[in-house]
Each structure stands twice: as structure tokens, then as C-alpha cells.
Please model this.
Amino acid sequence: MPWKKKSPAQFKGEACVLFPLSKSFPAARPNRVVITGAGIFTAFGPGWQINADGFRAGRTVFRPVTLFDVSHQRSKIAAEADLPAELPATKLAPNTIRRLGRASRMLVFAAQEAWSQAGWNAEENLPVVLGTTSGEMSFGEQYLQQALQSPHAKRRQPTRVIHYQIQQQGLELDNAFGFHGPITVISNACASGANAIGHAFEMVRGGRAEKVLTGGYDALCQLTFAGFDSLQALSPTTCRPFDATRDGLTLGEGAAILALETFEHARKRNAEILGEITGYGVATDTHHLTQPHPEGNAALAAMAAACACAKVSPDQIDYVNAHGTATPQNDATETVAVNRWAGGHAKKLPVSSTKSSIGHLLGAAGAVEAVVCLMALRGQWLPPQISLDKIDPACRFQIVREPVDAKVEMALSNSFGFGGANASLVFRRWA
Amino acid sequence: MSRVFIDGIGAVSPAGWGVTALRAALEKNVPLPIQPVARPGWEKPLFVRSVPPPAARPAFFAHPRLRRANAITQFTIAAALEALGETVSLVQSGAARLGIIVGMMSGGVNYSRRFYEEVLKDPATASPLIFPETVFNASASHLAAFLNSNAICYTLVGDDGTFLQGIALATQWLADDKVDVCLVIGAEETDWIVADAINLFHPNSVHSAGAGAILLKKDSSSGAIAELAAVTDSFPFTQRQTRATAACKMRAQFPPGMKNELLCTSAQQLPRLDTAESQAWSDWTGVQVAPRAILGEAFLAATAWQCVAACDVIRQNKFASANVSVVGVNQQAIGARFEKPAF
Model:
């Protein structure tokens, strides 16, 4: 026997208390999944109202990058956020707060807003599902710089290692609000935030969790900025999704968090319901690591799957928040996919990309855009793209170009990422 | 109630390419040799356990998507193909919907470090060929493309225990009928920057690399290797729940233990690191094995090796069941249990 054997004694019989695998199997009847808390932080600032005002007016918040040197890059602007000096009150210790990076700070802002709105208790066992592409990448950058420039200097390096790791941001949420629960981080490139919300939706819908705290976050960092610049994916001019002369995306940063729970649970505690998630669909595009297939089959499949999950047809969707990065390839593919998906409804379908206002938030994009959909559903307005000049003639749908009030019962949000990660979510107004 | 079976296993490790090499190393129960890795600015190197070159160049290296693929992607695909076995053709022909879950902690750190070094020298000339490979989900994307799989595909990032969260997620996808079969893969690659970071906290811990894969299937035929009996809850390490408490809670979800059961732990035979887990399992008097002590610390890949080893001993009728215990680097304690399938 090659294995290490400690003793031949045999255990005797207490009852097995294993986590039953049956917990993996869905509830016989799917739960309705409602949103009882929503928090957002973008370059508009922290909080629902300032963001709702910005998106409703179609304001843009791009400015020269100050966080790192971009003098050698093609693009020199981003939607860089101003972080307030103080974090909102949480259970985080002052020592911990001092060590938090930009991504964590924006995440705590968004989570605190969602948490307080939901009115959940601190002691509960609560799953957290987050999406991000790079977590606190700036700590990794600092670690490497110091390791190369001053190899024997160890000051601050342990802290950088700890806070660089993506799971740490999930643990910080646990600590900030005083709960325990499994932390799941999905890193599916630019679809990460939507995948996180979609996964949380499926957990609640399937009866695997009564409540889940979910969302996405990403901060600007030099590696990512230089990476997109190296691909010539960044716009040297202005971010103009679905414009005939679009020339690339503009990066942004931020976070958004949703508190999801079963309708029954929310009703029992008389919680205010902000909206409902009714559908989630995913598909993988295997065409290329960074370019979508021009026919948009995977994007179409994700939208169709989300609608099938929600049991709605495209003509019941009143607004699409497009992925709309403003790169030539993404928008061309998404245009084909939306045209195919909406069919005859396309000519009446309002579509906009709020990346024209706050840039591409990568792992946070899907989560922030989910909150934008909620805002539109609650406020009965559509977020416009003011910077649009000349609409790409391939678009058969209606690009929202001016601030407008509208009857919005259902909204669909698209998120498509590197590696072919495609995800769509369907939201319904709560009335 | 539907049951979930392990239909295939695969591994790439410092012991070599394949489950056979992994099994041989674990049966020998001797730590594998270490190799020096240069660290800029230091005369003394760090030491790692690297994956040896494959005996023959795998055919998949020639795939157009994989010409520039990093080591972690190569390990991922090799382990996945071994686990898939003949199921590959079913997936590639579209006859079976394959879910893919790839888990990692450090990810494609080699290209990330190289790319950022290029950025520091001159961002205007940083390579656009490298950057896409730095993205966490590059390996999963390459695997999906190689297999022509359009079904659901997630990349999970977290500490060692995240691999077991991936297994729990796979059972959900199978139960929801999202997929017919599901691959769960844990993968890591070595780099001096990761070894340097580990060295800050645990100088005696040896960084290593590789991948492990298990193929899960619902309602399998009698050819299944093992049955997934359970995955425990995940117990996070928080301000109010220490690593030791989390480990004990995880252990409490297992049965006490019986003859002919194996315990496969995440221990590295480093007292300070192993304390929480060894105390949690102090009542265990049966057989146990610690793959990390032999193969090195490869985070999610090492947890995958634990699961592969657990399933392998069941397949070989050495044990009727095997418990996998993971007390992770900094996130969670979590476990899983595999049993001999009874039909």
C-alpha cells in the first residue's frame, strides 16, 4: 500500500451530514427573481441619482487620463472616476480601508448602496457572485515594478499580493457587511458582470439560494489601457457606438451591485422591489480570441436564450442596452445579431449603448448596464447617445439619440467579451 | 434524484503529461525534484516544480488558435482532452453539449508579466499578440474553439477551493439540462513573479504548475470512474470566521470516516500552513495523501490533482470512496466526496 496510513481504526457511525447533492438540482417550480437593492459607481460619481441624471441626459464624462502615463499611447482619454475621500460607513477596519485600491473602493460604494436599500441583515449566510476582468490589477503592476526596480525592497509587497487577488474583493464585501457566504468570481472578460448577475439569477430562480449579492467591478489600470491601445481598439477621437465613422472604444471604470432575492422572500418582509430579472442567456463564439464572428450567431443565440428563459418574444422588448463598444467589429456584429433577432420589430426597437457616456467598464459593464436598464424601467425613459453623428446604415433599429420619456416594460442588456463570451439579460418593470 | 458521475479524468503535472504519471508520483510518495528559476536582481534563484516537456509534441499544438498559446492553455487543453477521451468527437460534431468551467488563481501570469514589462519599456510598442492571452478566460476560449463548443463556458477565479466550486456549478448546469457533459479544469503556470510572491509568505512552499480535469455527466452508463457524492458548502475566511473555524466546519460536513476510505488533503507538509487542515481532520485515522507535498503548490491545478487522484483510486478499486479536503490559500475551506458508483 503506497498511501500513508495513519492507523487501521475504523470510524463508527455518526450520521452523515454531507451537503446533499440534491441542493444542486433546481426547484420544481422556478422562483421569480426580484431586485431589492441596486448600487452604482461610475465616472458620473457614486449613487443612483447622479448616474440616473447623467444617463437620462446622455452626458459624457471622458477626460484626460491622470492615473498613469498615457503620453505614448494613441488614445489619451478615459472615463476616469473621482473617488470620494471617505468610504461609506461599513464594518471594515480602518487599517483595511487604508489598503483598499480603486476597484475595491468603487465596489464598496456600490455594494453599500445596494445593501442599505435592500435592508438585509448582517448575520446572514449570503452568497456573493462578482464579475471582473482584472480586480485590483494596479497592485500587480506596482508589485512587478518594485520587484524589477528594487528587487530586495519588500516594503508594501505583501499587501500588494493580498489585495491584488480577485477573491480578496469578495472577502472585503463579506467583511464590510458582516456576513459569511460562498464567493464566486466569474472572469469572462467584458461579459463578466452580466455572467455574474445571470449566475446569481439562476441560483435564486432554481431555489439554490434565497438571496444573492451580485454585480461587477473594474478600475482603470495601465496594463489594460495599454493592451487595448496595442490592439488599436481605443478611439483616438470620441466613443461613438453604432456611428458609421466609429473608430474604437473608450475605457471607463466603475462598479454596480444588485441585491437579488425571491419574490416570496421580498414580499414576506415588505421590501421595496425595484425590478425583476426574467431571463438570462449565454453562448460562446469560437471564431477568434478578440473578434466576434461577423454573422453574430453567438450574440443572437444569447439574446434568443435570454428571451426564451423570460418567455418573451423580441417584439415584447421595449429597449435594448447594447454592448455597443464602438469598435468597428463589435458594433457590426451586434448590429447583424440585433437585426436578425428582432426581425420585423427592429424598425421600432429603441437601442442605445451607454458606453457613449461612461466608456467601456469591462468586467463592470454588464452590471452597470443592468442598473441602467433598471433606471429606464423605473423612470420610464431611455438613455440617449448624444455623441452619435451619422448612424451606421446597417442598423435597422432605432438608436436613441435624444433624451426621451418612453413606456418601458421590458429591457434587454447585451454583454459580449473577448474569448467569445456572450451574455444577455432580460429585465421587467415592477409595477 | 439524478446522479452525477465522473466519466473522465486528465492531468498535467510536474510528474508528466497524463494521469498515469500523476498516479506514479503519488504512489511513490516522494517529493519531486525542484528546478531553479531566475529572479531579476537576485543571485540566488527561487525553486519551482515545472512541468516537463511532453514525450511527444501533442497534435493540438498545431491548431491555429494555439500557436501562441501560453503554457496554462497547453496544460488546460491536454488535461481536458485526456478527460474527454472519446467524448471529444461527440462534442466536436455537435452531438453533445459541453459545459466548460476553467478555474485559476494566477492565470496566464507569464504573458501578463511579459506584456507589462513591455508596457514599462515603451507602451507604444507593447505586443498586441500577447495582450489577448493575458485575459483570464483566454484558456477557456481556446479550449471551446478547439472543441467547437458553443455552449456555456465560465472562467472562475479564486483560491484553491474554487475548483470544487466549479464542480458544484457543473452539477447545476447538468441538473438544469444546460449541457450534456461538463468539463471542470483547474490550471496554473509557473513564473518567477508568482514564486517571488509565495516566497514572501511561505519560503518553503514550492510553486508548481499544470492542470487537472474531470468530466462530469448525469445519469452515466456503467463505465463511470466514480460518482460525485457531494460538495460541501464553501466556508470563507473572514474577520468573523478564521481559517481554522472554516476548516472545522468543512470537515464537519463529511461523515466521520470508514475503513477503505481515502482522505486527499491540500497539505504541503509545512506545519504553519497545514495547521488548520490537520487539526480539522485530527480525528481521521484512515489513509491519507497530500498531492501538494509531492507535486508542489499549484493552487487550482493542485486541487484538480486531488480530485483526479481521488477518482483514480476509486477506478482502480483501491478505495470505495475518497474525500477531498481543501483549506485554501486565502479564501475558503471546502471539500468534496467521490464514491464508487453502484448501478
Q: What stands out?
A: Chain B has a mean pLDDT of 96. Chain B touches chain A through 102 residues (CB under 8 Å).
